[in-house]
Amino acid sequence: MVRLILFGAPGAGKGTQAATLSQQLQVPHISTGDILRSAVAQQTPLGVEAQSYLNRGELVPDDLVIALIRERLSQPDAHSGWILDGFPRTVPQAEALDRLLQELSQRCDRVVNLEVPEPVLVSRMLERGRQDDTEDVIRNRLQVYHQKTSPLIHFYRDRDQLTAIDGHADVPAVTAAILDSLEDANHLAS
Ligand code: AMP
What we know:
Elements: E1 3-8, H1 14-25, E2 29-31, H2 32-42, H3 45-56, H4 62-73, E3 82-85, H5 91-103, E4 110-115, H6 118-128, H7 135-149, H8 151-157, E5 162-166, H9 171-189
Helix pairs in contact: 1-9, 2-3, 4-5
This protein binds adenosine monophosphate.
């Protein structure tokens, strides 16, 4: 059973690592970005509302993503673990997650911060070429990250839940480092 938050700037490799770890550890990979993109593609009411935020690289309002994650974590496959990718992204989201986990009698094992130098983030995103990976939107997403998301580093560090990992290493080395951090967390808990 693993409950892990993958944290980091856009382009840090959260999605890549979450996909691998989800297979290895047999727990669902929950990406708010993926859920929102699929809602936009299907033009559901959530998608219609979220679309302009995604296109501009702005954060979707907290109440929308909090409702989305509440629903997702309440589904049966999430009862025995999860990997969160891209949530929480603001302090109110982290506080809402705390309350939700308390309601569900769950506890997050570790928050892993994938640290990657900014020029590498930008070139990775440009290579990836997603619809919101144009230069202007990338610049905005990084600014939003610094303003609204990076304060969460202090939030989780203050509670001794954060492990910083060099996200610039190759993909298997980063995976191994994350698995190590989870082992350490298990030792601490037992
Ligand atoms: P990502 O795939 O994680 O890079 O997310 C893509 C876009 O989805 C972001 O630029 C935001 O517009 C939106 N998004 C994803 N997760 C969140 C979140 N936790 N809070 C607000 N907006 C989000």
